[in-house]
Amino acid sequence: MTTDDELRDVLRTVADEPAPPAKTTLQRVVQRGRRRVLLQRGATVAAVIGVVAAIGVGGVLLRSATAGQDVQPAGRLPSNEQSAPAPPPMPRLPGWRPAPFAVTHEDGRCRGVPYDGGTAADLHLPDVDTAEHRFVDALHRQIGTEIRSVDPIWQAESRPGVPPRGTIEVDTDIDGRQGFVQLIVEHFGGAVEKAADADVAMDGNCDAPQRKKLGDGTVLQVYPPTYNKYDIPLQHAAVYQPGGLYLLVTAGDISGQGEKGPSFADAGDRSRVPLDTAALAEVAEAVATLRR
Amino acid sequence: MRGGDQEFAEFFSARFEGARRIAYAMCGSWADADEIAQTAFVRMYARWAKIRLDTVDAYLRTVLTRLFLDTKRRSRNREHVVAELPERPVPPDHSSHERLAMRAALLRVPPGQRAVLVLRFIADLSVEQVADTLGCSPGTVKSQTVRGLATLREAYRRDENLARKA
Q: Which of A22, A47, A252, B141 sits CB 3.0–4.6 Å from A234 for a disulfide?
């Protein structure tokens, strides 16, 4: 073969090779795609990145459960719009303490004390390969081989008007129930504990999260199970590093695609949300060691 | 969602196999190609209402190629590049033999150049279309094409000789 034309002619035949049947189906694509759409609309990421919010009317309710006791719900305000059965209370994690729960109540939802930590530093994210390995390895330890797909989307450095942000989405299939575990990585501004305080009522939840502080000053916060506004049962765990790196791990169940009904692992059925509270905390601690 | 799921379903039916084959040409593995193509269509589904009909094919190519390049960057040991052709009987069909040698040779081309060659000569895109897909200049596409073909030629010559000796 002496000419580029001859080379190109043979090159064109590479994709003509007899192919095995495709494993992908339209149903699978739509299922994953819908989950992505629902998460994009319903996900609540820390609002402390350079945001100032006005304190709502109704004053401040300060709750802090006594150390050594199980975390009790801080008191969900009655809501005529409550459509799904309340999730069970979160079990107390060894070595974790209830987070200070200073919140305001507004329209049946709770809100943390606003904190303006200033603009997040313009720093790059951790390496995506390292993040993916750390995250997926931690998931494997918790749920074995029930991972169906891993999909990272990573913008490690800022672009004009767009701060760095990375996500790794993992689809799970546990005993036929479709779920997901998602890692979001970005930056926050200001002090670690104040940023965590501002997020105590993530998703408007009026139940106190649990908090753990690591030796290097990193704060971890595990939130009670909840539903997002599309009735997807899920649970979050957040990590706030000194230096401004923020990580959010979210586990959820999409089998019902928003159908109402109890669907939490802590209710005794692990085949619902992929990770129970303890497993979620373990995954959060594993990714808390990620560094730029 | 524009036209609902029906429109997307029609697009999927019409385009998925072609996308899978392009991904296969880039990555050399049908399993990986299936995963790359599936993820590309998942991302398109999530953004379907925002994609203009006249650019949907270009958007698919861009997403597919970026997924391939991201995969290569993240898993450098994922692809089994052989020093010699895998053991299999030399097919009596001369064209199949050539295709086998070409497939192995293509996998020796660096991922960026490989993507250019696949988009230019298998997907049959113009230099400008490849530049749009990769987010680079037409000049870069041309230079990558020249380098890619040179690497491909040398690798093909080596692999073809090995195959003939088998």
A: A252
- CB nearest B117 (choices: A11, A17, A149): A11
pLDDT at A247: 96
Going from the C-alpha of A233 to that of each of A32, A207, A262, A263, the distances in angstroms are 16, 15, 8, 6
> Exposed (0-12), middle (13-18) or buried (19+): which is B93, by Cβ within 10 Å?
exposed
Q: What string of DSSP letters covers A109-175? A: EEEEPP----SPP--PPPPHHHHHHHHHHHHHHHHTT-EEEEEEEEE-S-BTTB--EEEEEEEEEET
Q: Cβ(A254)–Cβ(A158) under 8 Å?
A: no
Confidence of residue B3 (pLDDT cuts 50, 70, 90): low
Partners of residue B9 in chain A, C-beta under 8 Å: 26
Closest by Cα among A76, A74, A68, A117 to A94: A68
Contact B155, B82 (CB under 8 A): no
Residue spans of chain A under pLDDT 50: 42-82, 258, 260-262, 266-267, 270-271
Instruction: Tell me the ipTM for this assembly.
Output: 0.83
Beta strands, E only, chain A? 61-63, 97-98, 101-106, 109-112, 147-155, 165-174, 177-187, 210-213, 219-222, 226-227, 233-240, 245-253
Length of chain A: 292
Rounded Cα distance, A206 and A74, in Å: 6
pLDDT for position B151: 93
Residues of A in contact with B152 (CB under 8 A): 7, 11
* Cβ(B124)–Cβ(B115) below 8 Å: no
- Measured CA to CA, the distance from residue B142 to residue B138 in angstroms comes to 6
Q: Three-state SS for A6?
A: helix
Q: Mark yes or no for CB contact B102/A11 under 8 Å.
A: yes
Cβ–Cβ of B98/A15 closer than 8 Å?
A: no
Q: Which of A94, A29, A47, A44 is nearest to A250 (CA)?
A: A44
**Residue B9 contacts A where some CB pair is shorter than 8 Å:** yes
Residues of chain A in contact with residue B153, where contact means CB-CB under 8 angstroms, are: 1, 4, 7
Of A125, A225, A272, nearest to A184 (Cα)? A125
Question: Whats the size of chain B, residue-wise?
Answer: 166
User: In this structure, what DSSP letter does residue A202 have?
Assistant: G
pTM of structure: 0.67
